[in-house]
Design a protein that fits this description.
The protein has 312 residues and is an alpha+beta fold. The chain contains seven helices and 13 strands. Helices cover 26% and strands 20% of the residues. GO terms for molecular function: ATP binding; metal ion binding.
Length: 312
């Protein structure tokens, strides 16, 4: 007697880019193969491609134009069947006001002031950085030592209906930011991002797509004190959102400073670059396997595992 072979469900998985980068910037170029080695089939689409609505799971990777189409993007995140990271995570993390939530939870965050249109423009003393509270890829971020020039930039953001985020310029950033990568809530790898913002009056250099500032990246082996900040940020974010940190398929925590006084600059949960190309081939293969296993776990949690559509 032959045993019946169960039906195996193959979920349709999309890695989401944008129109300018429909297959990402190249850093994620090996993810499709890494997923395939786990029996998962994925392909790239721009996030606004109607075919994303047919996917069983959409993974945000290079949706770097969303800041110009935020309302449309956030509506789309709730329209696809399943999204990682989840729509509630994306909505919270797309506005840098989340920094205030993390600071309130005790995470050591770079001092941050938010100035909404109509607010009094009280700027900190000294050299500062002004950026839009909703922004990605360093678009709209500038560095100022002249308070009047800074005020003009804040006013220009207000004219566009944007809230400005103002932070003191911390010269430790000239040594680079340490980018801590977590996969499914677990510590994975790290890399260093060189300084982006030039002196006052200049804009960062952007890639040909115009969606993000070009960065100088190098491998890193951070001290545990920096990883502690990363773990604290993830725990605080998960608690605020009412989820388990393991539900965050990917996360990147950008930290400045050394082990004596590390501070969080940003927590990236929407579409961060994960710095795969900074890893040697063997480590990259191992970490991308972890990513693929995280996708498997996500599918199981969502009821989309291989036997989820099995007929009785």
């Amino acid at each position: 007697m032959k045993l019946a072979r169960p039906d195996v469900f193959h979920p349709r998985i999309v890695l989401a880019g944008c129109q300018a980068l429909p297959q990402g910037d190249g850093d994620d170029g090996e993810l499709v193969a890494a997923l395939r080695r786990r029996g998962l089939h994925a392909h790239w689409l721009s996030w606004d491609d109607p075919d994303t609505l047919k996917a069983d799971l959409v993974i945000l990777r290079a949706t770097w134009d969303y800041i110009e189409r935020l309302d449309e993007f956030l509506e789309w995140t709730t329209s696809v069947r399943n999204l990682v990271n989840a729509p509630a995570v994306v909505s919270w993390n797309s506005d840098k006001a989340y920094l205030a939530d993390l600071a309130e939870a005790g995470v050591p965050v770079v001092p941050s002031t938010f100035i909404a249109p109509g607010d009094r423009m009280n700027l900190p003393e000294g050299e500062i950085v002004v950026k839009p509270a909703v922004g990605a890829g360093s678009v709209g971020a500038q560095r100022f030592h002249d308070s009047q020039a800074a005020r003009r930039h804040v006013a220009s953001l207000h004219d566009d209906g944007r809230t400005a985020l103002v932070q003191p310029y911390d010269r430790r950033v000239e040594d680079g930011e340490t980018a801590l990568v977590f996969l499914s809530g677990r510590q994975s790898h790290a890399f260093t991002k060189g300084p982006i913002l030039p002196s006052q009056g200049s804009q960062p250099a952007f890639d040909d797509s115009g969606t993000y500032a070009e960065e100088s990246l190098t491998p890193a082996e951070p001290d545990f004190e920096l990883w502690d900040v990363g773990h604290a940020a993830l725990s605080a974010a998960a608690a605020h959102l009412g989820i388990d940190a393991a539900e965050l398929l990917y996360a990147r925590v950008d930290v400045i400073g050394g082990p004596d006084d590390p501070q969080l600059l940003e927590l990236e949960l929407v579409e961060p670059s994960l710095g795969w190309r900074q890893l040697d081939a063997a480590t990259r293969s191992s970490r991308q396997r972890d990513f693929a296993v995280g996708v498997e776990d996500t599918l199981e949690r969502l009821g989309l595992g291989p036997l989820s559509h099995r007929r009785p």
